[in-house]
Design brief:
single chain; mainly alpha; two-stranded parallel sheet; two-stranded antiparallel ribbon
Length: 250
């Protein structure tokens, strides 16, 4: 290898820091504030087209899911919850800007899921991560979660502009507030639209601890570094076996 080729290879490696396996953490700084993720518009077009096609294809499954939920447990078919989405803020500070009076990390939006838990399941526990054999989950809900079919309702979020098919998974406001304090560069994952699936979802299990989230953030930020239409297309393809073989389901 020539000196010039070696220098180019070194520069490329630094620009696309791979996740380390020797215990060292990579540099998690991805974007400057207000900087757009490369290829955002092209990726958005792909995600909308794919979501529309999937919605048509999955329409019979969606109807069957809705009927089963209604027949087997009390409560609504859809579960609505506030999540934190895209952070469009820049570094400027204006005292008269009402958006800055409450910084939640991104734009709040209502996410849709097919209901998999009993009504008022979190009334006592509050916002907590799901656990294995979670008693809050209904029998039908357990099947939906195993195959991640409860997420199909979020296709409407994609078409509405709240989400993409591919991107970091959105969290609830109290969880985001906690993780922003405890995980360096957590806020960086809000620099792109959240997604139904993503690099972390096809690689890791469901979160059960803060350390799990730290690893997930590394994957999310690596995804943002490598963001492209081709990367989204690959993740969509890899999501299919994850659903079929119930990897990471709770």
């Amino acid at each position: 290898m020539t000196d010039r080729a070696a220098a180019a290879d070194t520069a490329s490696s630094k620009a696309r820091t791979e996740l380390r396996t020797d215990g060292e953490r990579p540099d998690l700084t991805v974007l400057k504030p207000a900087q757009r993720v490369p290829g955002d518009r092209a990726r958005r077009a792909l995600n909308v087209l794919a979501a529309a096609a999937l919605l048509v294809f999955a329409a019979p499954i969606i109807i069957i899911i809705a009927i089963l939920i209604k027949l087997t447990s009390r409560g609504p078919i859809l579960y609505r919850q506030t999540r934190i989405g895209l952070d469009q803020r820049n570094t400027g500070t204006r005292s008269n800007d009402p958006r800055r009076r409450l910084d939640q990390g991104g734009l709040p939006f209502t996410i849709y899921k097919f209901r998999t838990m009993w009504v008022d399941a979190e009334q006592v526990t509050g916002a907590v991560w799901a656990s294995k054999d979670d008693p809050r989950v209904t029998p039908i809900g357990r099947i939906l979660r195993q195959y991640r079919l409860d997420e199909l309702a979020q296709l409407f979020n994609v078409l509405a502009g709240d989400m993409n098919l591919v991107g970091p998974r959105p969290e609830r406001p109290p969880i985001v507030a906690r993780l922003r304090r405890e995980i360096p560069q957590y806020q960086q994952r809000h620099r792109t639209l959240p997604g139904i699936t993503g690099r972390a979802q096809i690689t890791l299990e469901y979160d059960t601890s803060l350390e799990d989230v730290r690893l997930k953030v590394e994957h999310d930020l690596e995804y943002i570094r490598c963001a492209s239409v081709w990367e989204d297309f690959k993740i969509m393809g890899k999501t299919i076996p994850v659903m079929l073989f119930r990897r990471g389901a709770r």
